[in-house]
Amino acid sequence: MLDQIFLQLLNGLDKGGAYALIALGLTLVFGTLGVVNFAHGALFMLGAFCAVTLQKLLTLEKITLSATETTPWGTPLEVREPYIHAIFGDFGNVLIDYSVPVAILLAIPVMLIVGVAMERGLIKHFYKRPHAEQILVTFGLAIVLQEVIKAIFGANPLPQPMPDAWRGAADVGAFFGMTPGVVIYPWWRLLYLLFSLGVIGLVFAFLQFTTFGMVVRAGMADRETVGLLGINIGRRFTAMFGLAAVVAGVAGVMYTPLLPPSFNLGMEFLVLSFVVVVVGGMGSLPGAVLAGFLLGILQSFASMNEVKTLLPGIDHIVIYLVAVIVLLVRPRGLLGRRGVMEG
């Protein structure tokens, strides 16, 4: 039983990592700009398709006709070789094998540009508008982005291969002194958990220990006072929107081997991520991270057969049930600031 509990804890942390990364970006946007961004799930989806795009580019093939080999019909045999291999040799094969993590290098500038363009081109016009209007316009933008991806890549999911070195599973239980061969967990899921913790740590370190981050945190608390000091807080908040887009994008990149990207990927995570933000507390970065991992763990334990036998369907509603309870007891969320979600 202890082995099962430990395995479900790992599953929960794995899911929670994805929830926390998306919720972190959502909270950055709400905390700095006061905008409820329903297009944030689409940014997660765009990041995933950065990985798809790079994989397609790296596997483009050069076709030549063999001078010595023929097909059974006597015609010259086609020889297919990826351009990247023809240019870089064996290193080209390494790039193809590691196309998903390498796609982070593509996703960072792409998502930064997309995020800044969204903020400057659309979001800035809705800063002082009601949240209902912000939700409508950003949700509409999410649908547009979704349909664009569908038109370019099609409606079917596109599986992305993980590197050969990260296939298989680790005997996590034996590492912690448990019975060998009982708690086996996929390497890539462990990597994603470590990756999510690393990104979260970098974001908090950036906000906590850099001058830029300190000004942003001050602006989140009192924008007018910071502006009176002669600091262009608007430009810094635009950069934070870009940072939030990058966080969502790289989260989507690394998630592609676990869930094949499709055009509706963002919508699948959107509602869950907003529940995470509300439970953690609107505008609270630690709350978003805490709620992400907490709800991931609760969802994992609710999916156990023993629990589903007692409470059929609980795995589908446990997150929303917890959200209702938290909001009834503490309307501003677990770590939310007073007045943000309270009347």
Explain this structure to me?
This protein has 343 residues and is mostly helical. It has one domain (2-65, 77-329): Orthogonal Bundle (ABC transporter involved in vitamin B12 uptake, BtuC). The protein is built from 15 helices and 4 strands. It has helices at residues 2-33, 40-58, 83-88, 90-97, 99-121, 131-153, 172-175, 187-209, 211-221, 223-228, 233-255, 265-280, 285-302, 305-310, 314-329, and strands spanning 61-70, 76-82, 169-171, 184-186. A two-stranded antiparallel sheet has the order 1-2. Strands 3-4 form a two-stranded antiparallel ribbon. A hairpin with a 5-residue loop joins strand 1 (61-70) and strand 2 (76-82). Helix 2 (40-58) packs across helix 11, helix 2 packs across helix 12 and helix 12 crosses helix 13. It is globular and about 80 Å long. The relative contact order is 0.19. The model has no long low-confidence stretch (mean pLDDT 86).
